[in-house]
């Protein structure tokens, strides 16, 4: 099947393959730190707006602040976009940061976690807190749900909770820039689900992020039937209704395309983009015999996106398709360091 072909299955087939997809995913899922608990159920009083448009939040507020380590501060944020729930956001603060100084604003790196992780994943699993190059940058690591997919969920046309995209790009961004020293020069990076989120946010919100990096990201979930089945398996991973996120891949194809970085490539052609991925075979940072069907699928997706970005005339594309390597933190930490010169360089440019 070509990269742009419509999947041949119908809804009944999608639902039948979910159990098999989940079983196939289980051995290769990244070993991330578990969040405090499973995601809460959606509230009954959800928004009624069309899911293709973000809800209009009344706002969000910080209800608690906890200093957890040197330069690390956790904000507890009550979010209208999340139905009034309170979620955590970890800040890695720059040297000299003082949120009471309203005259100083810092360039900002958003780091997005993957599926089955949480806002602590980057500091728990990498050396980001010890990285000297980030001592003059405010690093934002927001909660995005166990399986949130950086999206305002469709919820069968009702919209409403959870609206992760609105929480991040509207509510949280406003809070950070008003009260916590965040400037308007921003870049974004993420792994796996968060890699897709980084690409989506850069594409769907032109001008918000000056560069984007995706490490083993879901770059083209509509690539083929296997890719669709796999992400539907993730959507159902917590025993949830998989159609709540983007709907049915055929009936709600417009929503799916609107959340597929491949189909948003034209919006990324002026944004510096870094794509990296292994091929799913045993690599130098893996235990003997380790393989990952998920990484192999994402490798194909990333190659497709890279080709599409080149086709539409992308001006600043960097790829590192490093061959052998699975879906794991050792690679993502390495790729963060490899992409930092591009990301930090973009923060220093005008425009």
UniProtKB/TrEMBL annotation:
InterPro entries: AB_hydrolase_fold, Esterase-like, Mycobacterial_A85_antigen
GO molecular function: acyltransferase activity, transferring groups other than amino-acyl groups; hydrolase activity
Entry-linked Gene3D superfamilies: alpha/beta hydrolase
One Pfam match: Esterase
Taxonomic lineage of the native organism: Bacteria, Bacillati, Actinomycetota, Actinomycetes, Kitasatosporales
Keywords: Hydrolase, Signal
Chain intervals with Low complexity compositional bias: 34-46
Signal peptide: 1-33
Full protein name: S-formylglutathione hydrolase FrmB
Residue span of region Disordered: 34-59
Species assigned in the record: Streptomyces griseomycini
Domain of life from the UniProt record: Bacteria
């Amino acid at each position: 099947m070509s990269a742009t072909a419509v999947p041949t299955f119908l809804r009944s087939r999608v639902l039948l393959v979910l159990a098999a997809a989940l079983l196939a995913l289980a051995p290769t899922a990244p070993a991330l730190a578990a969040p405090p608990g499973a995601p809460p159920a959606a509230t009954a009083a959800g928004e009624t707006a069309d899911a293709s448009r973000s809800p209009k939040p009344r706002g969000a507020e910080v209800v608690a602040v906890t200093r957890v380590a040197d330069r690390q501060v956790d904000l507890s944020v009550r979010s209208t976009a999340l139905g009034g729930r309170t979620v955590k956001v970890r800040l890695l603060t720059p040297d000299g940061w003082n949120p009471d100084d309203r005259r100083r604003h810092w360039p900002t790196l958003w780091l997005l976690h993957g599926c089955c992780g949480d806002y602590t994943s980057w500091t728990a699993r990498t050396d980001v807190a010890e990285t000297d190059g980030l001592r003059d940058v405010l690093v934002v690591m927001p909660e995005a749900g166990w399986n949130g997919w950086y999206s305002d969920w469709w919820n069968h046309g009702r919209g409403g909770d959870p609206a992760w995209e609105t929480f991040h790009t509207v509510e949280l961004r406003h809070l950070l820039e008003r009260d916590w020293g965040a400037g308007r020069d921003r870049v974004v990076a993420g792994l796996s689900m968060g890699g897709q989120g980084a690409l989506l946010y850069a594409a769907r919100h032109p001008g918000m992020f000056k560069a984007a990096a995706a490490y083993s990201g879901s770059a083209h979930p509509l690539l083929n039937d296997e890719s669709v089945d796999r992400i539907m398996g993730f959507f159902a991973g917590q025993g949830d209704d998989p159609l709540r996120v983007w709907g049915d891949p055929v009936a709600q194809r417009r929503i799916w395309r609107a959340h597929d970085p491949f189909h948003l490539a034209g919006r990324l052609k002026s944004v510096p983009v870094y794509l990296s991925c292994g091929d799913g075979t045993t690599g130098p940072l893996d235990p003997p015999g380790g393989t990952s069907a998920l990484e192999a699928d994402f490798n194909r997706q990333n190659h497709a996106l890279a080709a599409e970005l080149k086709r539409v005339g992308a001006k600043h594309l960097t790829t590192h398709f490093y061959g052998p390597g699975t879906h794991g933190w050792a690679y993502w930490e390495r790729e963060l360091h490899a992409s930092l010169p591009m990301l930090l360089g973009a923060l220093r440019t005008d425009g």
